[in-house]
Amino acid sequence: MAEVSVITNEKLAIEIERKKSGFASGVGRIFAFVIGGFGVLISLLLFATIIGILPGIGLFFMSTGIIYLGLGKQQVACPHCKKKQPVLKTAENFNCPKCKNLTIINWK
Ligand SMILES: [Zn+2]
Questions:
Q1: What is the Å distance from ligand 1's center to 98 Cα?
Q2: How far is it, in rounded angstroms, from Cα 97 to Cα 89?
Q3: What's the rounded Cα separation, in Å, for the pair 60 and 40?
Q4: Total count of domains within the chain
Q5: How far is the CA of 103 from the centre of ligand 1 (A)?
Q6: Which structural domain range is residue 51 located in?
Q7: CA 94 to ligand 1 centroid distance, Å
Q8: How many helices (H) and strands (E) does the chain have?
Q9: Is the domain of 44 the same as that of 29?
Q10: Pairing mode of beta strands 84-88, 93-95
Q11: Residues 33, 10: one domain?
Q12: Residues 45 and 83 in one domain
């Protein structure tokens, strides 16, 4: 990339109310981590058996998907360009994929 676009280095901080979604809070969250973690472990064992590699791959992606769900994401609108994107509820900040600006999140 030869062309350098102007970087304003503009950082905006936004306050967001953390949404409580049913699955990603409390017991559902613990379940997601336990089941997901267990699934990853089994998939690693399947990898080790060589013949189990294919189902192992499937199980691995399913398990990481479950863990991902357990982490919990929330739609947050970028204050620069208003683009909505999923942001981890534990994130301190996020980089907008559209305008590339950094936004600092203050969770309420
Ligand atoms: Zn943006």
A1: 5
A2: 17
A3: 5
A4: 2
A5: 9
A6: 22-71
A7: 10
A8: 2, 5
A9: yes
A10: unpaired
A11: no
A12: no
